[in-house]
# Entry
Amino acid sequence: MKDQCEAEVDFTLSKLISERQISEFLEELKEGYPGIETFEFKTKGEKIIIKLGLNRRTITECLAYFKKSLERFLGKEFKAGIRKITVRDYKIKFRIPRSPKEPFEIPWVDELKFEEGSAILFYKELDESFIFNNRVERTIKLVQEKIERQYYEGKGEYWELIEESKPKKITYCKDPSAEMLKKGWIVKAPGKGKWIYMPEFVSVMRAMERIVFEKILEPLNFKEVIGSMLISGEEVWIRTGHLEGVPMEIYYVAEPISRDPKKWERFVDKIKIARKIDYDEFKGLINFRPLKGLTYAQCPILYYAFKGKTIAEASLPVKIFDRTQVSFRYEAGGKHGVERTDEFHRIELVFIGKKEQLLELRKKLISAYKTIFDEILELEWRMAWVTPFYLQQSGEIGKEEGERERIKGTIDFEAYLPYKNEWLEIQNLTIAGDKYTKAFNIKAQKGELWSGCSGIGLERWCVAFLSQHSLNQKEWPKKFREYLKELPEGFRFC
# Structure
């Protein structure tokens, strides 16, 4: 079965032109474009109506050719132009590798059907902006993605062990979050998945930060930047794919429509009287356009800082980090203590450079992480190659053609949690290839640019450490105690 499409196209002109005046040109136009299998035309008032059948997937390129040629001809011969293009009864038949397991719908499509080995899209009417903005092509891609998703959903994530530490003798088996809650190191904040960290726990986190600075950021010459915590949907998340992949996990933010106190007076008066929020009143006072949200991951806004730039060879590889943005993720379930929360703190490393530069940097980062986990934190850990199931390609996950080793993808470090007899991801390291450099149009003076990132989850480092070594400072490894010589005294309550 070959791809094919058919449609009726109305060209609304700026003046009346008869069929006789344009028929010879349209016949020449038909002969000038390959792949046309059926072609009929007529005029009606100020319209030229063309019925097309093509052995192509879509009419987009053909329509662009017709439009350009018609505009040139009409302008030269009749001092006329095209006011509007409308596509009607647009039917597209294209190949699919396998049939869907269950039916689904696609926005803007009036009918979607499946036959053996093919899908059929039908649109009653479309304007030219829909066609020329490649929305039909993206719709076809979406149909194929939805079919594939039905086959890989529920199969989980690819996971392959790379390396692991020697088993550690662990005698502590209590839940560190529960113990910290009892001792007042942490306090439950209003809302789900959020905490207030008191001086004792903060001191442990700051010690972890000092280790990261001393062993990773300073030796590898990472430069600190501060990114915005308010992220644009249009400028950032559409480019990175977050609004396609995880829109249900983002915390969204709205601006007030007006700063005029008089416009807010009724809302405020209701609070003063009822001591509760009238959400119907509130909705009329805020504006969700343009769409914005809180940081989901720190790297997207850092890539945005280089949007449209050509980076000089002397500045490669770019190595930056941010420790100021707080990450927010709406978790439906699985929350526990401070290791699985809706609000968490990370040091995010971002690097941009040539492929060889990033692979060399990855080796150095892995070596640094292993040194920290082995010699300072004395953790029982393991390192694994992880890839979502749908990205697996014939078992060669992350490998480039002709390469012996994996190039692109994510490596996770996991720490053992004795109290749960489970492993917790505490560290990741990703080489993303040209995904983000292309998304933000980041270029080099010569050659191709890649990017990568590595997120250091401070809460997770702390939980892994405390779950294996307890909350008793005397039980902590000697080298770690060099970074935290004494815990601050907590508060007493009567």
DSSP finds 15 helices and 22 strands in the chain. Residues 50 and 484 are 78 Å apart (CA to CA). The first helix runs from residue 19 to 31.
